[in-house]
RNA sequence: GGAGAGUUGGCAGAGUGGUAAUGCACCGGACUCGAAAUCCGGCGAACCAAGUUGUACUUGGCGCGCAGGUUCAAAUCCUGUACUCUCCUCCA
């Protein structure tokens, strides 16, 4: 959520910044106008309340002296009514203002490429050249089926489209990958967390998924009354429980920056992406992801974003997967982010880079919604800055490993760093069928 | 799922309709060569608004888990709700 004071005091700047993210300047004018009215009503109400408090004291005194106070009580009855009316007005205006503010995205950083969509993203750097093959590389979904380590048909039977069974060496590979990620992140100074996978609405709002992105997630309903959603949603990313861990907390300044990492499933309805990435591990309703979250001081967050990005890159480098880093344009960056670097890994069968990590500095946008604050050496309170990044998406990493490490005979060489995590297995070959 | 108890400042803890005791902690001062003890004074965090102005202060609002209601006035009465604890039930 943006700071209404910042908008109020720098209206033109705010309009200009948000225009690059597709927000019309009239929206800003509207919220400023509402704010103006709100403060006027608030002032009137507070003046009357001050009066009421004073008179109430007098009434109490009069009663103690056994004097008659019916005159004052009568007058206050009227004032009470006015206050009620004004407070209602303030509440309505606050609600209107909040409605707009909760739906405005974060201010983009000055360094963001300006443009309405992903075609304006800029490559920042590239690591290694795309993998070369002297045969035609297979797509990971075919490799998975042929090796009998991924079972799409039975997942479709049991759950539906965009679900998968990992089997045998496939399951082992998935587990190896996320354990490797968690171990590496821990070595880099992140504290491992196992968070809840169901969160309440306040948490979804704290990190910015709600109120705008309801349709992207799965919310639990009461079986007795399916129209009534419970206050629980399956997390679309561990970012939600990790950032909300700090919600409504005051952190001691000397603890910052705080780094946490968690493996979790991520549940996404993928509404609006029908027809895209219909095959393979790229776009699932349920996938595992290791997430990294940082909470830091405002002056430190841009350095922390670079560090976070490097932490994620380090994982790809150790796995030997070619990738490049892309700075997202103002129109493509996520709602909460001021600046985002996407890491895109090379996918040979598609002959292109695909997103495997998104590292964002959310500045104080989430912290304001979630009231994440810290106390500095002087005892003053400030909003913290929050950052999050995948480190990494597990399913997509498995897909990238399968495609980049495939051999002509259809087997998959296990990346060296994963061999210990695979109980010494160096190559994945065709598995026996279960049935 | 059922029953009961609880939620008040950094901590402890009183307060059954008149505007949040008290203690500890903390901050300032006195005493002292200095410290401790003692004494005096201050002190709920956060938030919002207005003003002086400039970033600190003044005034006001708000503030007793949260949200409503009753009342001239609510920590206190009423309703709803969240969470914590105990017991029962169920359960990996």
Return the CATH class of the largest domain.
Alpha Beta
- Beta strand %: 15-25%
Helix content: 25-40%
Number of strands: 18
User: What structural class do the secondary elements suggest?
Assistant: alpha+beta
* Main beta sheet: 8 strands, mixed
Number of domains: 2
Give the CATH architecture of the largest domain: 2-Layer Sandwich
Count of helical segments? 12
Global morphology: elongated
- Terminal CA distance reads 53 Å
Strand order of the largest sheet: 1-11-12-13-16-10-9-4
Q: Catalogue the unreliable spans.
A: none
Taking Cα atoms only, what radius of gyration do you get, to the nearest Å? 27 Å
| CATH topological fold name of the largest domain | BirA Bifunctional Protein, domain 2
Walk me through this protein's architecture:
The protein has helices spanning 4-9, 11-19, 25-64, 70-101, 140-147, 152-158, 169-187, 201-206, 239-244, 301-319, 365-370, 394-404, and strands spanning 122-127, 150-151, 165-166, 191-193, 198-199, 219-222, 225-234, 249-252, 258-267, 286-296, 323-327, 339-347, 352-361, 372-375, 381-383, 385-393, 412-413, 427-428. By secondary structure, the protein is α+β, with helices and mostly antiparallel strands. The strands form five sheets. Strands 1-11-12-13-16-10-9-4 form an eight-stranded mixed β-sheet. It has a three-stranded antiparallel β-sheet with strand order 5-7-6. Helix 2 (11-19) packs across helix 3 (25-64) and helix 3 runs antiparallel to helix 4. The two termini are 53 Å apart. The model has no long low-confidence stretch (mean pLDDT 92). It binds one RNA strand of 92 nucleotides through helix 3 and helix 4.
């Amino acid at each position: 959520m943006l700071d209404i004071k910042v908008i109020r005091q720098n209206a033109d700047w705010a309009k200009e910044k948000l225009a690059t993210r597709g927000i019309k300047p009239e929206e800003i004018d509207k919220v400023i106008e509402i704010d103006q009215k709100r403060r006027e009503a608030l002032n009137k109400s507070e003046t009357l309340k001050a009066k009421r408090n004073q008179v109430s004291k007098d009434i109490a005194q009069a009663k103690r002296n056994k004097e008659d106070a019916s005159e004052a009580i009568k007058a206050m009855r009227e004032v009470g009514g006015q206050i009620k009316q004004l407070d209602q007005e303030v509440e309505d205006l606050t609600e209107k203002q909040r409605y707009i503010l909760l739906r405005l995205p974060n201010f983009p950083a000055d360094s963001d490429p300006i443009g309405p969509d992903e075609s304006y993203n800029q490559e920042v750097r590239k690591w290694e050249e795309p993998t070369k093959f002297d045969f035609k590389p297979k797509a990971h979904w075919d490799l998975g089926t042929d090796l009998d380590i991924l079972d799409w048909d039975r997942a479709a039977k049991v759950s539906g489209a965009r679900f998968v069974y990992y089997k045998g060496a496939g399951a082992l590979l998935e587990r190896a990958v996320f354990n490797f990620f968690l171990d590496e992140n821990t070595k880099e100074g992140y504290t491992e967390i196992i968070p809840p996978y169901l969160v309440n609405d306040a948490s979804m709002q704290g990190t910015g998924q709600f109120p705008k992105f309801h349709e992207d997630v799965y919310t639990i309903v009461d079986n007795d009354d399916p129209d009534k959603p419970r206050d629980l949603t399956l997390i679309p990313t561990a970012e939600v429980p990790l950032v909300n861990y700090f919600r409504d907390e005051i952190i001691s300044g000397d603890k910052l920056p705080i780094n946490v990492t968690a493996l979790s499933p991520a549940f996404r309805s993928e509404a609006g992406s029908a027809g895209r990435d219909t095959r393979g591990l790229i776009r699932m309703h349920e996938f595992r992801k290791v997430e990294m979250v940082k909470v830091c001081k405002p002056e430190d967050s841009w350095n922390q974003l670079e560090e976070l990005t490097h932490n994620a890159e380090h994982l790809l480098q150790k796995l030997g997967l070619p990738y490049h880093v892309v700075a997202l344009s103002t129109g493509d960056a996520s709602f909460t982010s001021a600046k985002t670097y996407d890491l895109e890994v090379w996918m040979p069968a598609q002959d292109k880079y695909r997103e495997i990590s998104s590292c964002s500095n959310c500045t104080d946008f989430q912290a304001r919604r979630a009231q994440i604050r810290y106390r500095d050496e002087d005892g003053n309170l400030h909003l913290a800055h929050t950052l999050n990044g995948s480190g990494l998406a597990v399913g997509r990493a498995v897909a990238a490993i399968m495609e980049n490490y495939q051999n002509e005979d259809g087997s998959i060489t296990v990346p060296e760093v994963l061999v210990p995590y695979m109980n010494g297995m160096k190559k994945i070959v065709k598995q026996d069928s279960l049935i």
